[in-house]
Amino acid sequence: MGKIMILNGSPRAPKSNSKRYAALFRRYCPVGSDYFEITARNHAELIGRMDEYSDLLLVFPLYADSLPVGLLDFLKSLELHAGKRRPVVSVLVNCGFREYRQNETAVAMLRLFCHRHGYPFGAVLMLGSGEAILETPFRFLAVRKIRQLARAVANGQHPVLHTTLPLTAGLFCLTANRYWVLYGRRYGVSAEQMRTPDIEA
Ligand SMILES: Cc1cc2nc3c(=O)[nH]c(=O)nc-3n(C[C@H](O)[C@H](O)[C@H](O)COP(=O)(O)O)c2cc1C
User: Fold this and answer.
1) What is the Cα–Cα distance from 54 to 41, expressed in whole angstroms?
2) How far apart are CA 7 and CA 160, in angstroms?
3) 182 and 84, same structural domain?
4) How far apart are CA 85 and CA 183, in angstroms?
5) Looking at the structure, do residues 33 and 90 belong to the same domain, yes or no?
6) Do 83 and 116 lie in a common domain?
7) How far is the CA of 60 from the centre of ligand 1 (A)?
8) Do residues 162 and 173 share a domain?
9) Residues 6+ away with beta carbon under 8 Å from 144
10) Window from 26-40, 77-91, 118-132 with minimum mean pLDDT
11) Does ligand 1 lie within 6 Å of residue 68's CB atom?
């Protein structure tokens, strides 16, 4: 195996959870990797460099049960301007909700993309509670799976891995609610304001 190109598809890549997950992947991966963040302007540059790599790891958050639009746009560019080499595409997707299975549609979309365009599909890690898990005593669950993913990618294996916070739905809602209310308070935003569409502005 050669080298791994890691692409962060989060719209808030420099401050993202995906960036932290990618860093953990690199820490445990026994082969070399380079990390990049997808922006609206660097598609050509990233695609131009893809021939240097045997493997591609897409790290991104689930957005509305799908891929973030920036990642979709990048895939459109890749569709039009792919290089000669077809790296093995692996996936590390995280979602905010507890149920890691919510990521399955996004993974299926990428499988289809790879199938249609001749990219071998590699390993998958689906993380639930992706916004929170690294800040809890259950961080080790995420770290353990990322280490497994890193070794699988390095060894050319293709498992589908997953983990999440081991909380009941009720407890997850309670703690998540408290977390976001306190988070909003830090920025002077009330729980009521967070429940309105204005929060998007
Ligand atoms: C616009 C938007 C849409 C989202 N949609 C979902 C979703 O459909 N399901 C889910 O579980 N989490 C959803 N999330 C939560 C993110 O997946 C989660 O916060 C993730 O940790 C963000 O990762 P990042 O920091 O790498 O961008 C959404 C977040 C945003 C901002």
Assistant:
1) 24
2) 19
3) no
4) 44
5) yes
6) yes
7) 9
8) no
9) 163
10) 77-91
11) no
CB of 61 within 6 A of ligand 1: the answer is: yes
Q: b or e along 15-45 (b: 16 or more beta carbons within 10 Å of the residue's beta carbon)?
A: ebbbbbbbebbbeebeeebebebbeeebbee
Query: Which residue puts its alpha carbon closest to atom 27 of ligand 1?
Result: 10
Residue 148 sits in the same domain as residue 193? no
- The residue segments making up the domain with residue 141 are 4-166
Of ligand 1's listed atoms, the one at least distance from the Cα of 21 is 26
Query: Is the C-beta atom of 17 inside 6 A of ligand 1?
Result: yes
pLDDT one-digit tens code per residue, 130-184? 999 999 999 999 999 999 999 999 999 999 999 999 999 999 999 989 988 998 9
Do 133 and 155 fall within a single domain? yes
- What are the pLDDT digits (tens) for 95-109? 999 999 999 999 999
**Average pLDDT of the chain?**
95
Number of domains in the chain: 2
Question: Whose C-alpha lies nearest to ligand 1, atom 4?
Answer: 63
The single residue listed with the structure tokens 């993380």 is 127
- Please answer whether residues 164 and 128 qualify as being in contact, where contact means their C-beta atoms are separated by less than 8 angstroms: yes
- For 130, counting Cβ atoms within 10 Å of its Cβ (0-12 exposed, 13-18 middle, 19+ buried), the class is buried
Beta bridge partners of 56: 5, 89
